[in-house]
Write the structure tokens for this entry.
Amino acid sequence: MDLKLKDVATLLQVSQKTIYRWINEGKIPFYRINHQYRFKTNDLQRWSLGSKYSFQLEDASSDIMEQPVSLLSSLQKGGIFYNISGSSVTEILQQSVEMINLPPNVDANILLHKLKDREAMASTAIGDGIAFPHPRTPLVENITDETVSLCFLNKPINFNAIDDKPVGVIFIILSADQTRHLRLLAKLSYFCRQPEFIKLLKQQALREDLYNYLQS
């Protein structure tokens, strides 16, 4: 499978600017078609073995690939939480991990370490005061254990967002594999572009109102 630059940036959870820099520095395998950059999944998988980035597009079984991704179900399992306090990204992540509903066999300390490690690579803030913290590699094996946890912060903090806006809302995403992560991320990103949903987030709406919106 051949991928475009924007697809690779999404899969590796880095900015397109970072991919361009890696290309210029010869740090990532690529080729060109009509002056456009392209990437082979096999080359990227081999490259990832010697790097700190995970690339597992083809590792998922066909059964997993065919199962639908439900944002509502994942959020109901992960939970919605309020009054998360902290003056730094680390403190926010720590308190959030202590409060959210963790899937079976997911250790809170390991999850916190993975979330901090991911933020050290590049901010997961998407803009407009929202961030999507997640581990680089899956911590759950079964799709029934996938969760999304919504945490409202007491006070917005600096997440090094692209738009420089402090973050007051975080969604912690735990997926079974990279492909399902992208599907779940796409659904979440879609809702976070809807004015009604953004309004609910800014109001720190009740759980029932948020669930009802996603169900409608």
